[in-house]
Amino acid sequence: IGAFDHIFRSAMLSKLRTLPTAHRIIPYVMASYGEDSTFIWGDEQGQTHFINQGEGGEQGDALMPALFCLGLHDSLARAQARFNDNDNIVAYLNDIYIISHPLRARMAYDIVVSEIEAGTGIRPNLGKTECWGATSGDAPPGIPDLDTPAPAPPVWKGNLPVDQCGILILGSPIGTEAFVKRELDKKLHEEVEFLDRIALIPNIQVSCLLMYYCGSPRATYLLRTTPPTLCQDYAKKRDAMIRKKLAKILNLTETSLDRKAGQIHLPGRLGGLGLNSSKRSSWHW
């Protein structure tokens, strides 16, 4: 909970000290974390309050993601050392995933939680804790005990309706085919709202640049991390949506633009617009 704000500074700095080259920036880092940070808060009565913080990182600190990973590393390593040989931890910043046999799932979870809390001062956010397995059915032993009060969804996703049976791993859906389709449909709806706003900008040059740099490549990560067999429909609908919004920006008919669909995705040096093809990006998976 509040990972960046609560991690022990000693965990970050002691790990940084062991790095053969990066330890040279310790004097620079100590300028920010060598003493308590002071924050100023004004209440509704106009009174000013000074709040001291002796742990955690500063908001906006460009070094903080790297420092956080350093501070977390040893806790994850100790947890991994206590695991069964077939169990693993995968982490990206404070998104931590445990891969385990169902019968060992709760034990593995407790190991990771205890090591992280002891080594960094960070506790898990149960409201964001999820568990899923490819074999649906009853929850692994001890996992239902992690549920938070209603209306929060249950931690175990393996016995939910088929379109809710799965989890997001760094934004990529993993689960049943119906779950993946549901998440991709939600993502497409979000993109429609974003592209509608781009198409409303009166300056065509600005609209085209936003489409090129933001709108078109927005789904590249999702297309590269979802198996092509599961996102064909999403890729097809997305390409059609891009053409529709582009036609509106350029004041062309959708039919005329559909006939030039191939040229839209060609690079500028070949006379195209250089927009990403969702279908092509997916099949490069």
Could you say which overall geometry the principal axes of the C-alpha atoms support? globular
- Looking across the biggest beta sheet, what order are the strands in? 1-2
Category by helix and strand content: mainly alpha
Largest sheet: 2 strands, antiparallel
Strand content: 5-15%
Measure the end-to-end span: 34 Å
- Detail the poorly predicted runs: none
Oligomer: single chain
Summarize model confidence as the mean pLDDT: 91
Task: Say how many strands there are.
Answer: 6
The SSE order reads HHHEEHEEHEEHHHHHHH
Helix content: 40-55%
Using only C-alpha atoms, the radius of gyration works out to 24 Å
Helix count from the secondary structure assignment: 12
Which helices and strands occur, and which strands form pairs?
Blueprint: H1 3-6, H2 9-17, H3 26-33, E1 37-42, E2 48-53, H4 64-81, E3 88-92, E4 95-99, H5 105-120, E5 166-169, E6 172-175, H6 177-199, H7 204-215, H8 220-225, H9 228-250, H10 254-258, H11 261-264, H12 278-283
Antiparallel strand pairs: 1-2, 3-4, 5-6
Helix pairs in contact: 2-4, 4-5, 6-7, 6-9, 7-9
